Every structure is written in structure tokens, then in C-alpha cells.
């Protein structure tokens, strides 16, 4: 079967000539000369190997073959216009999909207001939010299953990933009312490490930062409990079984029970939160729009208790 190669400009010229029945009128509307239009129609007939118009000095009329070709040509143009309109919508982030991978503390403590603002501006973009540990975030972005990722601590730029630091997340002490942290003051790390503590598992970014600080400062860290989920840590603390030290972004994940939050010093410990994406790859329009939003906002103002002083508060207050 011989393939017929026609471009959309030629097909539009054919349809307009069929509509007007006049080379002069069709050429005027197309902004070309009558002779140019005549050559286009001749090429179409040559390539289709069919006579599409009967024409004399005054009249142009579709043949039966031309009428059949017109139905197909209109279908082609409608499909083309619809596809191009859909692509334009995608480019302008009126539709599309955004997939974000992030640490649970970031997806719960930082991203919700940003996602709400993004969806207000782009209501037809589907947003998928995957919360996971640091290694999972890196893997999802590297494999292209997530457009962008939010993780902790610096990821060196490489052939695979680029990293942009967004903010510093300060560690604070967390306890139940009436616990060791009842006194309203700033606590030192050596003080809280002497108490029964719950620690996050060694695979988490929170534990990595604490372990590094303890090694650097020759602190002995022997937690009574070790857990994988922040909600479990919050439950143990709320029962008065232990205290803990966590970054401020983790507070919304701790649960509903009233808890005490106290500043920590000696040292002041910070976890660096950053954004990662695949190096050398153009982000989809929706991902680029979300990235621009993140970069334009004062993220520190979104951190719970980012300016914490001595306080007794509930996560739901």
C-alpha cells in the first residue's frame, strides 16, 4: 500500500478551497497567491492519485473522491488541532502530572501549604506525593519515577542528581508534660542524652545527623528505644517513657497528644533540607512550575516552631 504524505498546511488549503469553491477567495484567506494554491492542490491530487476537484474558468466543485477526501481531511485537522491544544495545555501546566518524593517530615511539615497553593493555581494537574526515607527519595528521582525530591543533607552534584539547599531545620527537645523537660529553659545535648530517649532508626536522616554530632562531640548515645516511624516516637514520648530530639519539621507527624518543645544548644544542631532533580534533564512543565513556587516562598515561615522559645504546646493547638 502506497503511503500518502501530506502536511497539515496542504490539507487546510484543500478544505478551504472546498469550502469557498473559489481559488481566488481561498488564496486570499490563506494569504497566498492563486497560482501557489493551484500548485498545492495539484500536488495533493498527484500524491493521492485521485482527481479531487472538477474545475473550469469559473467554478470549482468537489468530485465524489474529493467529497470522501474532505471528510477524512476534516477528521485529520480536528485531531491535529485537538492534540496541539492538549499539548499547549500541558506546556502551560493547565493539565499534567507532578510526582514528588520526600521525607515524611517534609511531606507532612513543609509541603501541604505549598501543594495547596500550587493546586489552586493548577487545579487540573494531578499531584502524587510519595513519602519515604532518604535512600528511597534518591532512588525514585534517579529512576525517573519522581520528578523532584525533598531530602536531608547535601547530595553532591553528580551525573545523576542535582541538589539545591532550601532551609535549615533545627533540632529541638521533645517530652511529655511533667517530664525531664518540664523546666522552661534551653537544654544542652549532654543533659538530654543522659535521659531515657527514643531514637529514629539508623536508616533515617534524623539519626544520621545525631550520630554524626555525637561522634564529633564525643557524646555517648544509647537510646532506650529505636523506632522507624515518627508517630511511634511521639506515642512513646507522650506516655512519659522517654524524651527525644527531633527537627522542627517532624512535629506535625508526632501525634495529637500535648508535648513540650524546648530549644537545644551545645551544639545547635541543624538538618539541611534540600531539593533534588535529575541532572541534565528538562523538568516537565508542572514540575518546573512547582519548583519555581518553592523557590519563591519563605520556607522557614512554614516550619512549625521555627522560632521556638520555651513552650508547652500541643501539635493540634
Automatic annotation (TrEMBL):
PROSITE patterns: HTH_LYSR (PS50931). Residues 6-63 form the HTH lysR-type domain. The keyword Zinc does not apply. CDD domains: PBP2_LTTR_like_4. It holds the Pfam family LysR_substrate. Keywords: DNA-binding, Transcription, Transcription regulation. Belongs to the LysR transcriptional regulatory family. PANTHER family: HTH-TYPE TRANSCRIPTIONAL REGULATOR YBHD, NITROGEN ASSIMILATION TRANSCRIPTIONAL ACTIVATOR-RELATED. This is LysR family transcriptional regulator.
